[in-house]
What we know:
The protein has 549 residues and is α/β, with parallel strands linked by helices. Strands 1, 2, 11, 12, 13, 14 and 25 form a seven-stranded mixed beta sheet that branches. Strands 7, 17, 18, 19, 20, 23 and 24 form a seven-stranded antiparallel beta sheet that branches. Strands 5-6-8 form a three-stranded mixed beta sheet. Helix 1 runs parallel beside helix 6 and helix 4 packs across helix 13. The radius of gyration is 23 Å and the shape is globular.
Amino acid sequence: MTAKVVIRAVDTFDYIVVGAGTAGCVLANRLTGSGRHRVLLLEAGGEDRNIWIHIPLGYGKLFTDARVNWLYDSEPEPELNNRRLIQPRGKVLGGSSSINGLLYIRGQPEDFDHWRQLGNSGWSFDDVLPYFRRAENQERGEDALHGVGGPLAVSNVSEPHPLCDAFIEAALQAGFPRNDDFNGPTQEGAGYFQLTARNGRRWSTAVGYLRPARRRPNLKVAANALTTRILFSGRRAVGVEYRQGDATHVAHASGEVILAAGAFNSPQVLQLSGIGPGRLLQSFGIDVIADMPGIGADLQDHLQVRFIYRCSERCTINDMMSSVRGRVAAGLRYLLLRKGFLTVGAGYAGGFFRTDPAAATPDVQVHFILFSADSVGKQLHSYPGFIASVCQLRPESRGTVSIKSPDPRQPPAIQPRYLTAPADREVVVKGMRLLRRIMTRPALERYVAAEQAPGPQRTSDADLLAFARETGATVFHPTSTCRMGSDLTAVVDERLRVHGMEGLRVIDGSIMPTVVSGNTNAAIVMIAEKGADMILQDAAAGTPASAAA
Ligand SMILES: Cc1cc2nc3c(=O)[nH]c(=O)nc-3n(C[C@H](O)[C@H](O)[C@H](O)COP(=O)(O)OP(=O)(O)OC[C@H]3O[C@@H](n4cnc5c(N)ncnc54)[C@H](O)[C@@H]3O)c2cc1C
């Protein structure tokens, strides 16, 4: 396709933020707060007007909606029977925080202490906790670990559910503790999740951070604006080129360009701009500004294996959705009371467990989900059904993101290489055994009519691994493709500045040195809160935004 190239008037900003996702919306808010800096926020997707974004259960409808989702697929996965896996990503204001499952999980304090131990000063749990607290508006109130009054609403599920109560009881019967706060002093145990929601409405970063900031005259938001490349003068980022409709625009940055396009698109934009693995770029005729093999390397993600259960009672979301009466009742309950199934996104309850009692912290997470379908985004089963999934929290497998074309409209090649590390295969199988241990406790007997999949006949380690290979899927937590660190393949330093470049940072999920042990949205909000502080501190101190090569 040849787009008509019309270069519109060039405008200059202090900061240009590429991507209005989880991180980009936080940055837009914090960088414009003082009124001193002019900021341009560029987003490839549109406004977040789709009603299903804002009703938590609508999450299920957004998996296949090209109006709000990039709808990526992975390359054939060698350890998963060469299947291509769907890789949804938000393409709308709020980014993936507008289409995600709403679960509010920060990860383990040890994750951040590990980042620090890898050499990233300023990123230990004690260092990052103030940013988690500053972001948070915790419904339960303030304490040493939680904050109130921040832009990100965090709430309890609207009401308990008997099937979730039974799951939690079953975990207790299997010897695990109850946990009412997975972001509290310890992550281990079973309990209800908290959600980034308030009064039954999703609290994306577009809602919490961007909306209030849009009134500020020093913020310009350009939606449906695809950033095609970063512009450089030598090694200094001086602006971006972006496309809106048929027109190509140029915007200049007198301060910095900040990439917040997410774990797939931040490395893609860098590669398209001439920063990345030299040979890859040359193969597409792209002039190499900096040969950096780490850009797009080290992709990490959580692979989940879903057990499907037929339920003995008609108390699941499948049952509500299968009749007009059920849907109307749920709709009324939502509208009048802000309660019920429509207020819940992905998991309702779940837990964090150690497959090996000798392990220091939990190594698997269970999501307990009150509906069932053959795979994510597919039609719900007509029978009463629910899912319990297990994912390994600290995978050793590493994948890649690399451009497949010099055309910015073409998706990059996403190759997570799930289960390529033997340790990952081992933990996944142990996790499946652990899940079965919980699901076969007496507390759940009343509800479990049958384990539909994998099915009781599949019992050996080989059977379980084969099931993981046949059905394993992403739980949507890709990270680390522009990894923070000081080693040869690290992409950004501990102030999130791209090594060897000037005026260029990456601030989003792609900078995580290792994926956190849990869902990723809350940690990315924290990263953006901290990143914004570092930018403002550097501006106040007159420090050049450049990192040592
Ligand atoms: C279906 C799903 C369910 C999930 N469930 C949960 C959950 O329950 N809890 C949880 O904590 N996490 C969950 N996650 C993960 C979490 O939402 C993401 O890790 C997080 O939102 C990523 O934030 P980010 O800022 O790195 O990227 P994103 O939020 O994806 O933002 C990137 C933004 O950049 C834009 N962009 C990309 N390329 C360009 C370009 N060239 N030009 C302009 N704009 C561009 C994108 O359109 C997007 O808006 C889920 C994710 C998905 C997809």
